[in-house]
Amino acid sequence: MTVSTAKMTHQYIDRVSCEVKNEKLFGDRFIQLIYCDAREKAPILFKALTSARMSSVLGFLNYDLLLKQNFPGRVDLLKTLKVDLFECLEPDNLTTLRKIFERKIRYDDVRPMPENPSAVVSPADAKMIAGSSEKSPMMFIKEKFFDVNELLGHENKRWIREFHNGSYAIFRLTPEKYHYNHTPVAGTTLDIYEMEGVYHSCNPTAALTAATPISKNRRVVTVIDTDTDEGTGVGLVAMVEVAALMIGDIRQCYSDFGYTNPRPVTPGLFLIKGQPKSIFKPGSSTVVLLFQKNKIVFSPDILANLGRRDVQSRFSAGLGQPVVETDVAVREEIATRKSAGI
Questions:
Q1: Rounded mean pLDDT of 193-200?
Q2: Pairwise CA distance, residues 232 & 185, whole Å
């Protein structure tokens, strides 16, 4: 049966103001055409549209070919996207849409870190949901997005075992967001590997109509051991960076300070919490964090927002119960180490 979302509003909670906000879904009609019509009536076309080749072509047409040169509507576009030039490192250099999406910010000043050494921080400016793999209804909403075994790769039995029945957080980056990902914890890299896949959109319509779209997409999995000297102390954490429609690449570019001397993430590399780790090429994309069982506690406001009944969300936990996202800032506390006895 076709899922119609043509007239559905999608709302989220602004964490700072606690206000309910309407999300402007970029390309919503196009996404509905792909997922609600092509997927059901023309599966071969749907497969082609979510392929790596088509995603690359769409990205080229949108970000490289059409807007490679300076464009006269730059100021209006920056306002539409709500890009704050004050926080940008090189505001005068934002002359193309690609440069806007790949902008750098003064994150030490405008995205300050919490003082709590056991805090887990958001890896991105994104809309977030969180939950536990063993508790309903969050189990249900998680299974709309990803299957843990498929997400990590069925052959990676060690990591599947380590994160069984653990907690998770999903961060949905929309096109206007700052597209660098930062390290959510401090610790030593145990493993990093890439999983090939398709390029599903992160628009809510994709989650409504395509089963576990995140775990089918191309993605990079980084497993971090935080139980080390100067680590965050929350066990193992898997950071899964997921490519999406019109995302051409996920480039690893970790820096200890600012954006200087970027280098690939490799096993054995110690990651300082809150530092730039990678960048999504233009578009919208997703980051998933997996935690071991009983290691972390999510921030109370984020958990309280999940079940708010006064918000219209396209995400549902079943029986009409909405699952509500919270808009969070990169390097902002979203969880902390679970104390003994809790």
A1: 78
A2: 6
